Every structure is written in structure tokens, then in C-alpha cells.
Amino acid sequence: MGRTKNEQVGLDYWSLLRYFVFGPTRHTTIGVAMLLDVFNVDHGACALMTSSNGRRIMVDCGHHSETQWFPGNALNDREIFDLDRLIVSHFDEDHCSGIGNLLTKVHVHQLVFNGSTPSEIVRQMKAKQGMRQGTETLVRALEQTFTIPVSLHSDAYEFGDMSWSTFQNRYEPPYGFTDSNNLSLVTFVRCGPHKIIFPGDLEVAGWKQLLRNRAFVNELQGVTIFMASHHGRLNGYCEDVMDLCPQLDVVIFTDEGIRFDTQRTAALYRQHVSRGIFFAGKHRRVLTTRTDKSMRFELRAEGGGQVALNIAA
């Protein structure tokens, strides 16, 4: 896949690494252990990880209403018709609005979600405000297609240099969590010294509950790429969590535009980034899809890599 006229490519702080262009099919490119694509999908989320042996995991599956970017179409354009895991953080529309397009275009082997929120619970949670098309399609898929419980972490399936695990709060009325945001499935994806966290729309109360889990705390301490919770809104920022991530390279906001004053949190996150990346002569600690659009990280197993911004997704 070549670069577009507007695509920007920058070297990160690690090393000078030539820009690899990967073919659309499974690859074994020397030197790159994992690709991370973060797509520009309005006020939503969608990211794709490709391992060294070509296995693919997608986290959330939003779409872009203005450009009509849909995840299934985008994968097909890359001649990808097979997705090993789809991880859905939670059942809000902006995180699953492209599910219908994805399922009609791509074979998804397994769908991973917070198992304490099966379809009947989601219907109860969404009863008051109603379910929009994406959420309804996702719930039907759980009822009709993805009916077998799946592992919430890497299993015997071969993901090459990539491994992953998840943590969750449980749906526990009347005194526990009953809101979609704090039931977000938190996903960690690891590749060599790199570790990415996808927290969905987790809010402070949900973070603090997970911090009671020692295994979760241990995972945080190795995070290098942090996807800001709730698109960077203040209620998703937890200082205690950020203080447990001393090796941060960058924080990423996935939001097309600042819709809420509480999203003006870049300075809060920036103070926690110990290293940052160098891009176009600038030292960047925070990236956003609203200014940097879709982005790609090429990560090496021994450390280092490269980032490209404003790419054709």
C-alpha cells in the first residue's frame, strides 16, 4: 500500500528505520514485529493490529459518517477478508457503528467482549435510550453467530510476536457497575518491549475498581502506548493509573473533534509521557485523530519503530 500525497511519515525517538510498505496479505517482513493502525472514525474508536505472522486483531469497529469510511470496506481495500479476533470494548454506538459493514465484508473468527454483559443484559441497559443500528446489529450477532464463550486472553492460537489480555469490571446491580462505560473491556496488547492499552470509555470509578487487581496494576507498569479513555474526556482520566505507566511513549486521543470541554485534557496526559516521539522536527507526546487523522505504528520486537500520520486508511 503506497503513500498518498498528504501522508506524513516521521521517525520516532528510537532509531532511524526505513519506511516499510506492507502488502495487503499476511506478511513476514523482516524487522517489524507488529503493525498498529489507528483509524480516524469520528467520535469513536477502531484500531487494527497485525502480527509478524499476519494474524489480525481489531479493537472496536466505529465508522466515519462524513467520509463514509467503514472498517469492512477498508480491510477489503487491503485485500483482507479474515479477522482473527474482534474485541469490542463496550456496547456504545460509537465503538460498534461499523459492525454491520465489517461482518458482511470480513470473516471474524471470534468476538471478544465483557462476558458479564451478554445480549439480554445489554438490551436491559439500553432499554431507556434505545439501541441504535450498530449496537442492535452487534447484539444480534451475539445471539445468532458468536454464541460460544471465548478466551479473554491469548490462547493456543498463534499470534507470532503479539500477545494480548483483558480485564473487566462485572455487571453487578444494584450496588456494582451497571453503566456501559465502566463495564468497558480493557485490552492490553504486547509485542516485545511495546505494550498498548485500549480502555474503551472507562471512567474514574471503573479505573479505581480495577486497580484493586494486582495483575492489572502489573500490566499497567509496562504500557508504552496509551489510548486515552473516553476519547480524552476528563471523566476517563485517572491520575493513579497514569502514575503507574512510567514508560509511556505516547498518548492517543481518538476523536474527530473536541465536542466537550472536558476533552481538553492533553496537558494532563502529556505530563505523564516520559519519552514521546519525534515527528516532522517536533517532539510529540500526544497524538489525536482530529489533527493527525489515521496513523500507523511499525513496532520492532527488539524495541523502536516508526510512526506515519495522516495516512490513507
TrEMBL record:
Molecular function per GO: hydrolase activity
Record key words, sorted: Hydrolase
Record-linked Pfam families: Lactamase_B
Domain Metallo-beta-lactamase span(s) in chain numbering: 43-112
InterPro entries attached to this UniProt entry: Competence_DNA_uptake (IPR052159), Metallo-B-lactamas (IPR001279), RibonucZ/Hydroxyglut_hydro (IPR036866)
Domain of life of the source: Bacteria
Name of the protein in its database record: MBL fold metallo-hydrolase
Organism annotation: Eiseniibacteriota bacterium
